[in-house]
DNA sequence: CGTCACTTTGAAAGCTTTCAATAGGAGTGG
DNA sequence: CCACTCCTATTGAAAGCTTTCAAAGTGACG
């Protein structure tokens, strides 16, 4: 589990990494006086199945939350970044592995203390509730993405999602590798690469050196990703197509 | 959002519909004296985007939670059944449409009252927390399923999941259509049908009349679905494959 | 300035989807 | 109670999008 401890951020619902929640009581306060711990790229903060003894707050860097299938296929459930909470779960074991993508700095508190404090503080309870609802919502967005969108739509949507939470400008620096992106989007590295190339050739993005990318035609990209800010249809209720039973 | 208000149930984490939570304070009590409302098959309990005025408890029947893409592609996020909670969300609008698959009976309470009561009752707060964590976990299982499993694994896993929550016996009666299953598994109706036929021809299942299916070789099915109850590997920690960065 | 890991390309293979058409079943009306 | 209609499920065959398998580029580092 993860979630911003005091995030702002908008977040088009379609394809957002973590969740947009209005600033409120800061869950981050819980970690205020805990020491910072550093994690080198590639190292795990905790493993799926391990005793969930702590709850973590990401202070810096990016992590990937992943799960492995018996035959080594890997699925990345999401990425966590500064301000996100990791390891919140009711069960006693972590449900996924959290690995550092970049150098990461975290703070931790005992799970028991986390819940005790949360339970005793109305404002924090509401924050946690919001975070959990957001997490579910994000995971479901991912379900829609994986279940019904093409490779191109996934990649376009991914780039837009990253962009939405990066400082500013058309330039984005992906902290993760193509493999991470592929495992997050349910594709292969090659397909991700091909889509990037394709978007690039069509002038929608510019693939820079390393892992930097510039969005050239955000509007077109949104159209591709199916995240049209179609203002005309904005007011109308979503879609009420009638489906046979 | 949905979740069992007082569920028992085990639930192999891989591919479970709703979530397994130990019995505790019954959230269902909140609905105890509310009148039952009936919904005919195919009718919506609420629409995505609608003002989330109520929280519902399913008393009977099965619903599908779905989302539509701009071009009519549909994704089913999950199914809800007796005991599940629907419509819990922090935001003011429903994030998906809930439609009756079978004849459904529900009870409802105002969202404000729901949260007020929950907030005032420690035991209920913990229940809700557990439900929300479970929902997130379920949605993520689905992400892994859609992102990294083959059509055959998905169908096999789906049948096992349905079986796990049905009364008993090898026989299961699917309340939903092939289309619903397809939209839930991110496949087409034809592919689902072909997989069923294939499993049937190999003797793993027997496709009865209507929507009934018998599991002939549950063990083999589990192997296919990647849900091996491999006792030997049971004790060992999940998987700690080291991934390059 | 090599080495190694990651990314990009190519070409062929594969799994699913599409498009079409044939079964099956449930419900309706004569 | 049977004929008729409609909708859902099953099959087939061809097309397509992704994946696989291989190999060539690129860039970061020591």
Characterise this structure.
The structure is a homodimer of 245-residue chains. With 245 residues, chain A is α+β, with helices and mostly antiparallel strands. Chain A has helices spanning 111-120, 122-148, 151-165, 178-185, 189-201, 218-225; strands spanning 37-39, 44-46, 54-60, 62-68, 74-81, 85-86, 97-100, 104-110, 171-173, 205-207, 212-215. Chain A has 6 helices and 11 strands. In chain A, the strands form 3 sheets. In chain A, strands 1-8-3-6 form a 4-stranded antiparallel beta sheet. A 4-stranded antiparallel beta sheet of chain A has the order 2-7-4-5. Chains A and B meet through strand 5, helix 2 and helix 4 of A and strand 5, helix 2 and helix 4 of B. Chain B binds a DNA duplex (30 and 30 nucleotides) through helix 5.
Index terms:
homodimer; 245 residues; alpha+beta; 6 helices; 33% helix; 21% strand; DNA-binding
Helix content of chain A: 25-40%
Q: What is the C-alpha radius of gyration of chain A, as a whole number of Å?
A: 19 Å
Termini of chain A, distance in Å? 35 Å
Shape of chain A: globular
The oligomeric state is homodimer
Integer average pLDDT of chain A = 88
